Amino acid sequence: MQFLVIAYDGKDEKAMDRRMAVRTAHLTGVEKMRAEGKALYGVAILDTQEKMIGSVMVVEFSSRADLDSWLKVEPYVTGNVWQKIDILPCRVPPLFE
């Protein structure tokens, strides 16, 4: 099952510091998920000054419970970077696969 994950960083003055502190661990995890076929797409959300303020990912897990298990260990969650997360079921059409 595919999911759209829309995650927003905190808005406090330390938000970017938290993001950068765990960014390498986050990207390493995404690379592993990509190799496993779990991370399909990902982008950083930018503000009008092109500063990263969140993330969007399209992921594939066998269930919502498996997605929730990933979120429990995702560095942007454990590092308190993502402070608001919306999750919606979705489907990537064959055109984009």
Architecture overview:
The model has no long low-confidence stretch (mean pLDDT 96). 36% of the residues lie in helices and 35% in strands. A four-stranded antiparallel sheet has the order 2-3-1-4, covered by helices on one side. The chain is globular, with a radius of gyration of 13 Å. It has helices at residues 15-35, 64-73, 75-78; strands at residues 2-9, 39-46, 52-60, 82-90. The chain has a single domain, classed as Dimeric alpha+beta barrel (Alpha-Beta Plaits). The relative contact order is 0.31. Strand 2 and strand 3 (52-60) form a beta hairpin. It is of the alpha+beta class and 97 residues long.
Main sheet characteristics? 4 strands, antiparallel
Let me know the CATH homologous superfamily.
Answer: Dimeric alpha+beta barrel
CATH level 3 topology: Alpha-Beta Plaits
Low-confidence stretches: none
The assigned structural class equals alpha+beta
The percentage helix is 25-40%
The count of strands amounts to: 4
Strand order of the largest sheet: 2-3-1-4
CATH class assignment: Alpha Beta
Overall tally of domains: 1
Radius of gyration: 13 Å
Number of helices: 3
Corresponding CATH architecture: 2-Layer Sandwich
What gross morphology would you assign?
Answer: globular
Report the portion of residues in β strands: 35-45%
The termini sit apart by 14 Å
H-E order: EHEEHHE
Mean pLDDT: 96
